[in-house]
């Protein structure tokens, strides 16, 4: 059993019978050599276990600071399915959305369903999809 207050990569790997390298690669979007089924299993287990990447928490803090400096308000909404953002976006008068944590193909489906602009924050796909993808250099950048 894992400590629900602190889920580690090794906990997720053990629960799925995978290597920590595989789980880490999924977390960091390095999935070219990993089957789609395994990627989905890892992503589901990460959500189920409540894994929070330390990078994500630091990124959200920095993002919040910059949004406030620009005179906007940041509202966070967790969604298990990217289509949940369709109804959410229609309930609020939003200038736009910043999304993270979904698969590349899901962003295109969403782009085709909503009219408000959105940015993908550190997505892992080639930017040929008419979607703004803010890419961070994980090796040169420190938060």
Distance between the termini: 31 Å
Low-confidence stretches: 139-143
Largest sheet: 3 strands, parallel
Q: Quick one: overall form?
A: globular
- How many strand segments? 3
Look at the structure and give the mean pLDDT: 83
Strand content: 5-15%
Radius of gyration in whole Å, from Cα? Answer: 16 Å
Structural class: mainly alpha
Number of helices: 6
The overall number of domains is 2
What descriptive keywords fit this protein?
143 residues; mainly alpha; 2 domains; 3-stranded parallel beta sheet; 6 helices; 7% strand; globular; disordered C terminus
Structural write-up:
This protein has 143 residues and is mostly helical. The protein folds into two domains: 9-49, no CATH class; 54-134, no CATH class. The chain is 43% helix and 7% strand. It is built from six helices and three strands. It has helices at 9-16, 20-27, 36-49, 54-69, 84-91, 104-111, and strands at residues 97-99, 118-121, 132-134. Strands 1-2-3 form a three-stranded parallel beta sheet, with no helix packed on it. Helix 1 packs across helix 2 (20-27) and helix 1 (9-16) crosses helix 3 (36-49). The two termini are 31 Å apart. Mean pLDDT is 83; it is low at 139-143.
Please provide a brief summary of the model:
This protein is mainly alpha-helical and 143 residues long. The protein is 43% helix and 7% strand. It has a three-stranded parallel sheet, with no helix packed on it.
């Amino acid at each position: 059993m894992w400590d629900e207050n602190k889920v580690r990569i090794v906990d997720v790997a053990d629960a799925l019978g995978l290597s920590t390298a595989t789980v880490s690669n999924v977390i960091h979007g390095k999935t070219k050599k990993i089957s789609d089924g395994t990627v989905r299993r890892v992503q589901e287990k990460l959500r189920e276990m409540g894994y929070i990447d330390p990078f994500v928490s630091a990124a959200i803090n920095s993002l919040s600071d910059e949004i406030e400096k620009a005179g906007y308000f940041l509202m966070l909404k967790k969604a298990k399915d990217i289509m949940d953002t369709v109804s959410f976006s229609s309930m609020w008068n939003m200038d736009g959305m910043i999304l993270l944590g979904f698969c590349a193909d899901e962003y295109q489906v969403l782009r085709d369903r909503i009219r408000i602009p959105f940015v993908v924050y550190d997505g892992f796909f080639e930017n040929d999809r008419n979607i703004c993808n803010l890419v961070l250099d994980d090796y040169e950048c420190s938060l």
